[in-house]
Amino acid sequence: SVPLTFFAGIGGASRASVLVKGANYLEALADVDTVVFDKTGTLTEGRFALSEVQPAAGVAEGDLFRIAAALEDHSTHPIAQAISGAFTGDRPAVTQVEEVSGRGLRGQIDGQTALAGNARLLNEAGIQVPAVENIGSVVYVAHQGCYLGYFLVADKPKADAQAAIQGLKDQGIRETVMLTGDRQAVGQAIAARLGLDRVETELLPQDKVTALEKLQADKRRVAFVGDGLNDAPVLALADVGIAMGALGSDAAIEAADVVLMTDEPHKVAESIAIARRTRRIVW
Ligand code: ADP
Ligand code: MG
Q: Which family does the record claim for this protein (predicted)?
């Protein structure tokens, strides 16, 4: 595997929290003109709090929770903890549980299919769900072909997320983009708040790859910043793949060219600045 270059930076040890896997990536970083971010865990904290529980008509809240928690216990997605952690009651046994990429969870409970995830997951199973106006990410739940209700969960931007975007603009980065599997209302609200140039929402992991390919076809030199949860292929495809190192998965650290050990998005602009300065000194 590739040896890690300890990127102490020109400006001293205070910046020594960015790992670059070789001088060629420092070079590529200096040339980046477009920075694409994943949302959850990258621009947001990746810690969801439960803000609403809404059982369907005639469904007991406890039954909604039992099915949802039974499934979410098997997930490592940051949404899962908000639901399974909020319910201490007994759960039924689940078999054949699987994460459905960009959608949520599917398993078998009492010999019947149980689902917890976004509208796409339930719609694909032929189950209609109500629109939810309140702001947040929605986890819909179904069992035995019946809609049981939803949970609203909310994450928040990292403390430095807005400064991270501003820092890139200050350096003349041509475009800042956020890609997310989350719904439009959530993605657009966060993008507006953080000042991103563009946002694409309701993407499947494969759609994130396609979005990056489009930018590269347009001759952009793209850095993609992610946490590796579902987005390792995008990290690998980008001209510079930048992973969150502390929260990020082993897959992210493996797939990335640059690792931010402190998980702070403002380190992206800082890294680009250091890479550009380094090039000026070397050349
Ligand atoms: P992001 O682009 O924010 O990283 P993901 O691709 O990880 O999002 O997930 C996209 C969407 O899939 C989430 O916003 C959520 O609606 C749904 N989802 C994924 N995993 C789960 C889960 N464990 N429970 C419920 N919903 C989930
Ligand atoms: Mg993700």
A: Belongs to the cation transport ATPase (P-type) (TC 3.A.3) family. Type IB subfamily.
d(CA 104, CA 102): 6
| Spatial distance between the Cα atoms of 272 and 278, rounded to a whole number of angstroms | 10
State the amino acid at position 279 in one-letter form.
R
Residue identifier of the C-alpha nearest atom 13 of ligand 1: 182
- ipTM surpassing 0.95, yes or no? yes
Q: Kindly list the catalytic residues.
A: 38
Please report, in angstroms and rounded to a whole number, the separation of the first and last CA atoms in the chain. 29
- Please report, for the chain, the start and end positions of each structural domain, with discontinuous segments joined by +: 5-45+157-282, 49-154
Out of 3.30.70.360, 3.40.640.10, 3.30.420.40, 3.40.50.1000, select the CATH number for domain 5-45+157-282: 3.40.50.1000
Residue 83 CA to residue 252 CA, distance in Å, equals 25
3-class secondary structure, 142: strand
Nearest to 222 by CA among 25, 37, 34, 30: 34
Instruction: Answer yes or no: are the C-beta atoms of 201 and 60 closer than 8 Å.
Output: no
CA 167 to chain centre: 21
Class of domain 49-154 as given by CATH: alpha beta
Residue of minimum CA distance from atom 8 in ligand 1: 181
Q: Is 139 in the pocket of ligand 1 (CB under 6 A)?
A: yes
DSSP 14: G
